[in-house]
Amino acid sequence: MSHRLLCITFALALALSASLVHADLASTVAQVKPAIAMVGTYKATNSPRFALRGSGFVVGDGGQGNKLVTNAHVLVPSSEVDPQATLVVQLRMGSSGWQTRPATVLEVDTQHDLALLRFDGPAVAAFKVRSSDAVQEGQAVAFMGFPIGGALGFSPVTHRAMVSSIAPAALPTPTASQLNPKVIRSVRANSPFDIFQLDGTAYPGNSGGPLFDPETGEVLGVVNMVLIKGTRESALTHPSGISYAVPSRHVLEMLERNAGN
């Protein structure tokens, strides 16, 4: 085979590989999209009645009812709870549009900024959660959610990304002047754990959304735009725009603790 023919063959192989990757993600998005949800509060006297607080995703663990994972910070702080407002999740039910379902909190894992909710009603599509222990730096991933608090419309948005680093959630603070009360509380209360640093750009409304394998749709992490930024980037005057995700191993542990609920 001539050198020129070899180059052409290699180029065609690369193009075919790229097209297959795009095709895989397209089919994966269609598969998992029904399992993405908006998390927020509902109050009949408010305008709008639904206030979006973040993203979430339905999980299937063999327990009772439907369960949903999100970030703990997506939930309304107890000091701000309006007794007339209801915690709800909104799911896209095909051509019938968004359906609102009341939700209850099963567990809040403040250390990893995770929360597990349960909502009633007919079973819906769910993500499969895979262990994140085998995730490697340089691995291709995707994430889905409702960026900028729904400012772009209540339609789930998917982004490609790469795991650019696996590193501790909290960085050592070089100087005392860079310490603040939030960082001190976090260091005292939390045991160190690793997080995924991503090269894709996520926004606050993406918090609680799934980080997943583009080929299989299996969840590998939970996008986090508040807790981790507050510990890793506390010394920065301007946020870096780097995105983070909590590894799915902590989701699996939470699901195991609530298997019978």
TrEMBL record:
The keyword Signal applies. GO terms for molecular function: peptidase activity. One of its GO terms (biological process) is proteolysis. Keywords: Hydrolase, Protease, Signal. It comes from the Bacteria. Residues 1-23 form the signal peptide. InterPro entries: Peptidase_S1_PA, Peptidase_S1_PA_chymotrypsin. PANTHER family: PROTEASE DO-LIKE 5, CHLOROPLASTIC (PTHR43019:SF23), SERINE ENDOPROTEASE DEGS (PTHR43019). This is Serine protease. It comes from Rhodoferax ferrireducens. The lineage of its organism: Bacteria, Pseudomonadati, Pseudomonadota, Betaproteobacteria, Burkholderiales.
